[in-house]
Amino acid sequence: MALPVGKLDFKLLEKFLSKYCPADSSVLIGPKLGLDSAVLRLDNNLLVAKTDPITFASDLIGWYAVNVNANDVVVTGTKPKWFLATILLPEYKATKALAERIFSQISQACKKLGVSFVGGHTEITVNLDRPIVVGCMLGTTTKKKLITSAGAKQNDLLIITKGVVIEGTSIIAREKEKMLRKKFSKPFIEKAKRYLFSPGISVVKDALLASKYANAMHDPTEGGLLTGIYEMMLASNKGCLVYADRIPILKEAKILCEEFNLNPLTTISSGTLLISARKENAEKLLKVYKRNGIKAAIIGEVKEKRFGMKLMQNGKIKPLKCSARDEIAKIFCLQE
Questions:
Q1: How far apart are the C-alpha atoms of 235 and 229, rounded to whole Å?
Q2: The pLDDT of residue 336
């Protein structure tokens, strides 16, 4: 039986991680659901390592690859430093111009973040209909500064920055531009496309500002905000109550999700930083964000595990449901 598009089923992945991922004594944090980066002991420092592919987007794929991997490193309180990329180009569609475009995108994104592009692998691959870039980001920190998504505490408040579906909005506008032109104005489409840069899919600034105040941080990607919350609570062994009506959904994101019948709470959301912090620290952080021009909102609270993970919407409380299959996958099944 074929598995569906998206992340591997959580229970199946958990089984594989426990069965096939032995670790030596240098591994401080190894593979575990909800923990996106590995942390390794190197003498007095820690090495934080992350790898992630870009499979949904084809336009500006190099920019996505750098920023998505940087996000998962910076949420540990670590500044990203070194990037490697495996670039797979589709047979019969690979050109010198395509290869150079991807290298240029990676280079520009790395320069913007102060990251060194240090290597990887490039090849032309059979049976691909689009390029794929698999990135690997590295950074160093100390045990004292380390933050993980497993650090959420009971009675913490949950905060998100910017809003949801930032990456999803850009993907929809770029991948389905021809279809959108039939209904939407050029300025609307261009603004949605530029979500990649404004408000932007990077959470590096958001996370570095939050590192002084956060108990836990996470970067919601595939599966959107609700999957990100689920992963954080799972890693932290906690429950939560999320206030759906307080979650900011940007104008173009809301319109495009409605157009393609996507749930904005379970659509890919790189650019949104999820933070768990004590109430007094949450209030301080909101003031810091305001001074730095970053919009943020309190969207829930952490509960004890037995409370479960719940969502309040329109005054009604129901179980928080997420999916390993991202809503964005629906758009790739549509005919132009």
A1: 10
A2: 55
Angstrom distance (rounded) from CA 70 to CA 110: 9
Angle at 159 between CA 106 and CA 139, to 5 degrees: 35
- pLDDT above 90: percentage of residues in the chain: 83
**Residue whose token pair is 């595939």:** 222
DSSP string, 102-155: HHHHHHHHHHHHT-EEEEEEEEEETT-SS-EEEEEEEEEE-TTT---TT---TT
**Sign of the CA dihedral with 306 first, then 280, 76, and 221 last:** positive
Distance CA 158, CA 50 (A): 24
Domain 23-141 in CATH: superfamily?
A: PurM-like, N-terminal domain (3.30.1330.10)
Amino acid at 250: L
CATH top-level class of 157-333: alpha beta
Burial of 65 per CB tally in 10 Å (0-12, 13-18, 19+): buried
79 pLDDT more than 60? yes
Q: Which of 80, 138, 135 is nearest to 106 (CA)?
A: 135
- The whole model's pTM is what? 0.92
By the 8 A CB rule, do 157 and 276 touch? yes
DSSP state of 195: G
Q: Which residues contact 218 (CB under 8 A, 6 or more apart)?
A: 34, 36, 75, 149, 228, 229, 231, 232, 273, 274
Helix or strand run (H / E) with residue 64:
helix 61-74
- H or E, element range at 282: helix 279-291
Query: Is the confidence at residue 56, as pLDDT, over 80?
Result: no
**DSSP calls for 106-121:** HHHHHHHHT-EEEEEE
Q: Hunting for tokens 């569609």 — which residue is that? A: 93
Terminal Cα-to-Cα distance of the chain (whole angstroms): 29
Could you state, in order of their start, the residue ranges of all structural domains in the chain? Answer: 23-141, 157-333
